[in-house]
Amino acid sequence: MFITFEGIEGSGKTTQIQSAAAYLSGRNLPVVVTREPGGTAIGLKIRALLLDPEHHDLDPRAELLLYMADRAHHLSTVVRPAVADRKIVLCDRYFDATLAYQGYARGLDIDFLKTLHSLVLDDFTPDLTLLLDLPPQIGLRRAWRQISAGEREAAETRFEKELVPFHERVRAGYLDMALQSPKRFRIVNAEQDPDIVGRDIRGILSHFFDTRYPPD
């Protein structure tokens, strides 16, 4: 089982993915938590390149290929083996992020991105995607507050330094994808208090898993 968490900066993915992992573990389900980029040792090096604010002039095509390289290695060494071992993989970002950021926001051709995903990654698709949605202004305020408090890496702020219209395009892209794939996406109101967001996510997961792993 492969479940992804998506959303703009400051949407609370890191907090909520840990909360979801604890909930599923409490149901005696085997869980693996990972992220993109940076879910492997090699991925950490790619992540440092991608998120370094000094690399503000990185060409969108180069950015795309770095993300795809990270994803190809991550899938082959972490995600696919865990899924084959019947574990539940919770991943902080996946290919939908590429469509949102490099496609909708950067302007790379969406059909080309989907073709690349199909060719390189065999169109490997999540079973469920949780989209933590909130306005960019709120998300960015949260993100910068966390950075100032030392709760997030100041060396990984390349996207936080993008202008608000960029993040508005990212959000619009995510919502468009959710509209196109309603069976896979669940939209969660991330403006709420984190405890309420966590409760909503647990409700979604409970409904999703009860048909697959009925409670004793």
TrEMBL record:
<keyword id="KW-0808">Transferase</keyword>
<feature type="binding site">
    <location>
        <begin position="7"/>
        <end position="14"/>
    </location>
    <ligand>
        <name>ATP</name>
    </ligand>
</feature>
<dbReference type="Pfam" id="PF02223">
    <property type="entry name" value="Thymidylate_kin"/>
</dbReference>
<comment type="function">
    <text>Phosphorylation of dTMP to form dTDP in both de novo and salvage pathways of dTTP synthesis.</text>
</comment>
<dbReference type="GO" id="GO:0006233">
    <property type="term" value="P:dTDP biosynthetic process"/>
</dbReference>
<dbReference type="GO" id="GO:0005524">
    <property type="term" value="F:ATP binding"/>
</dbReference>
<keyword id="KW-0067">ATP-binding</keyword>
<dbReference type="InterPro" id="IPR027417">
    <property type="entry name" value="P-loop_NTPase"/>
</dbReference>
<keyword id="KW-0545">Nucleotide biosynthesis</keyword>
<dbReference type="GO" id="GO:0006235">
    <property type="term" value="P:dTTP biosynthetic process"/>
</dbReference>
<protein>
    <recommendedName>
        <fullName>Thymidylate kinase</fullName>
        <ecNumber>2.7.4.9</ecNumber>
    </recommendedName>
</protein>
<keyword id="KW-0547">Nucleotide-binding</keyword>
<dbReference type="GO" id="GO:0004798">
    <property type="term" value="F:dTMP kinase activity"/>
</dbReference>
<dbReference type="GO" id="GO:0006227">
    <property type="term" value="P:dUDP biosynthetic process"/>
</dbReference>
<comment type="similarity">
    <text>Belongs to the thymidylate kinase family.</text>
</comment>
<dbReference type="InterPro" id="IPR018094">
    <property type="entry name" value="Thymidylate_kinase"/>
</dbReference>
<dbReference type="InterPro" id="IPR039430">
    <property type="entry name" value="Thymidylate_kin-like_dom"/>
</dbReference>
<keyword id="KW-0418">Kinase</keyword>
<feature type="domain" description="Thymidylate kinase-like">
    <location>
        <begin position="5"/>
        <end position="201"/>
    </location>
</feature>
<dbReference type="GO" id="GO:0005829">
    <property type="term" value="C:cytosol"/>
</dbReference>
